[in-house]
Amino acid sequence: MDSDPARPVIAERNEPSPKVPGDGERGTVLLLVPTGVLIVALLASIAVDSAAAFLAQREAQAAASSLANDLVSLGIDEASLRRHGSYRLDASRLRNLSQWGQRMATERLSAVFEPGSVSVSVSAAGSKAVRVSVSGSARRVIGLIGNVDGKSNRNVSAEAIGRVRLSG
Questions:
Q1: CA dist., res. 119 & res. 135, Å (int)
Q2: CB 81 within 8 A of CB 93
Q3: What are the Cα distances from residue 109, in Å, to 57, 94, 141, 166?
Q4: Does the predicted model carry a pTM greater than 0.85?
Q5: Which is the most buried residue in 15, 41, 57, 116, by most CB within 10 A?
């Protein structure tokens, strides 16, 4: 009663399913997407930190140039100008103004440089010129990802020379 003798038993064949194009490469996308995202994030962090260093360099150059221009304008020897009609710088006046200029440049650069890292040097470059040097450590924005050289900041420096001359 268990089996019907009149009915033959047919063995089923297990055929493989038809191949779909690209079916064997299904898992490769799972590996490529996170790797691509990681590479894009790394390159973006390097770009952002490079842009921050470039901004710091431009700010340092702008601060040095404006300070040199201000010191030349304010450091003119007025007595010599009135007596002889010649432009030259007063050394004592320039020394007094250089301390003021250092404070102003430090305040201006505090947004892009590490606190306490700004160094401003003012010196006379002859009787009609002032040399201003600005240096400091620029902050990294992302730092850890794009930190190729292992430092948490970049050293940036700029120099400008202001000259006394008659305009117009």
A1: 5
A2: no
A3: 10, 22, 16, 30
A4: no
A5: 57
